[in-house]
Amino acid sequence: MREMPANQLNPRIKSVWRINDAIWIVVSFLCCFLPFAIIALVAPEEAWAGVVALIVAILFVALLVLCVVVLPPIRYARWRYELTPDYLDIARGIFWRKRFVIPFIRVQNTDTRQGPILRAFGLSSVTVATAAGEHEIPGLGIEEADVLRDRAAELARLAREDV
């Protein structure tokens, strides 16, 4: 088996993941909790609605702890990438581990992306597109992401010239 790629993401990505996950969990919680809470308040004789609202609240707290406290350090430790002259190697995943080896001859486009949360932490993502889809390396420093994007684009150009 091939060794794990050498490079890790910027450690600040853990905070970005925590914020993103917390936002999605809170929005989902409100969508699931509020209807049952309203039913329980408007129609007190419907006791089942209060029970369902309580179960949703307990699941919310458990999911929040899992996704905000437990998973980000594990996810960070499992995320690796490496750029070689011939391919881009990406390894990620906690339960379902995935390994992508992307030959530069197949690369069509390289791109950087930066949403508001990544921008607040001074991070950016690099996306490498092939005919089979896009592969993203999240949580790189802005300068590092620009260098990686430009290097990947140059290696892809050189691979196409060699054919």
What does the model show?
- The structure is a single chain.
- The protein is an alpha+beta fold and 163 residues long.
- It has two domains: 9-76; 80-162, PH-domain like.
- 54% of the residues lie in helices and 26% in strands.
- It is built from four helices and seven strands; from the N terminus they run E-H-H-E-E-E-E-H-E-E-H.
- It has helices spanning 13-42, 47-78, 116-120, 142-162, and strands spanning 7-8, 80-83, 87-92, 98-103, 107-113, 123-130, 133-141.
- The protein has a four-stranded antiparallel sheet with strand order 1-2-3-4.
- The two termini are 28 Å apart.
- Residues 76-150 form the YdbS-like PH domain.
- Keywords: Membrane, Transmembrane, Transmembrane helix.
- The chain crosses the membrane at residues 21-42, 48-71.
